[in-house]
Amino acid sequence: MSDELISILVLVVVFVIATTRSINMGALSFAAAFGVGELVADFSADHIFAGFPGDLFVVLVGVTYLFALARANGTTDWLVHASIRLVGGRVALIPWVMFAISGVLTAIGAVSPAAVAIVAPLALSFAARYHISPLLMGAMVVHGAQGGGFSPISIYGSIVNGIVDREKLPGNEVTLFLTSLVVNLIIAAVVFVVCGGLKLPRTAVAAGEIRQDNRDGKEGEDGEKGAAVDAPADAESRLTPARIATLAALVALVVAVLAFDLDAGLTSITLAVALSVFWPDHGKKAVNEVTWPTVLLICGVLTYVGVLDEMGTIDYAGKAVSDIGIPLLAALLLCYIGGIVSAFASSVGIMGALIPLAVPFLAQGDIGAVGMIAALAVSATVVDVSPFSTNGALVLANAPDVDRDRFFRQLMVYGGIMVVAVPPVVWLTMVVPGLG
């Protein structure tokens, strides 16, 4: 058996173990990088660490640090309630409010699971109170998060665009962002209609009626974490100095990255540190809430991908796909692979592994790189409503007053529909026309 085939089989084993044993795929990938690098490829430790994505590490830590701080001081709660007041509390518009909030959070830097974790508890509690389908509300939150997830300053966007730059492929950040946004917006509209959104009342609810149950990390009056917390309108709508400063920091991040082309990770860390100097209690809590499992996941997977690249495995796999002889068929198969595996594992990890594997295939020039990368990215993320994914699991866990077995089956069926239907649609619209 060739070294390249061994390294691919190890990657498959990593995915299987991570899915079935609930072990962080990044930790498994570091172990795989060590084992394959040392025992199969005879690499030194320095050679193995050469593939560590230091730039993405800073981006991940920086933006999640800043958003953890925003959550700790109540800025994200203020954004949610301000958006609800913006639509006059009309029930029929609330699912779209949740879609928009999730999208904005991920578009300006929040990790998708973090955005879903912030919005889902409020959204699903609201759904239970006003008899909105939990599947509708959960799907709107997840698709909103994925819709904004590929902006140039987002985590997903930074990862994909970073890989594209390192692999010297043609890229278009705007096309990637708009493709994900439009696809998720269309899916959300279909779900809204199918799940009874048009039948929702257009009457208004008082802002003070909105209640967020089991807010993660918040302490009730008795000091117990996880206790139900009332969110009265006056408390959530008040702009404290910390919230004003945080909102200014988020605006500064957008301006710094888009207008001045500054590094998103270093800028985020700098802004978070500045806020922490004035509000150290919030800063201390925020450091503990940085999504370290996600950091470990991405850095581990991309380190192993670096080992695969050095071994020649990526060229080997790309040639195998190219040998199919029908470029469009190979492109469709890659989209399906991304969707199927991502439904049971991490979308971020899948993108980190899948796009480099497609590099030799794209280098032939038969398929437009911009369209293919956009199709791969959407195929690997739109399925995140599956209950086996982090976002789907968050939706399932935060749905009150539901039959969880039934809701689990609904999410599983819905995720299966996404796996089957979305890859050929994005392939047909983004890849077949030869967008490059």
From TrEMBL:
Residue intervals passing through the bilayer: 47-70, 82-101, 107-128, 135-156, 176-198, 247-278, 290-307, 328-355, 367-390, 411-432
Keywords associated with the record: Membrane, Transmembrane, Transmembrane helix
Domain of life per record: Bacteria
Ranges of biased composition (kind: Basic and acidic residues): 211-227
Region feature (Disordered): 211-233
Pfam family, one: MatC_N
InterPro entries reported in the protein's UniProt record: CitT-rel, MatC_N
Location of the Dicarboxylate carrier MatC N-terminal domain: 1-149
Protein name as it appears in the record: Dicarboxylate carrier MatC N-terminal domain-containing protein
Taxonomic source organism: Streptomyces malaysiensis
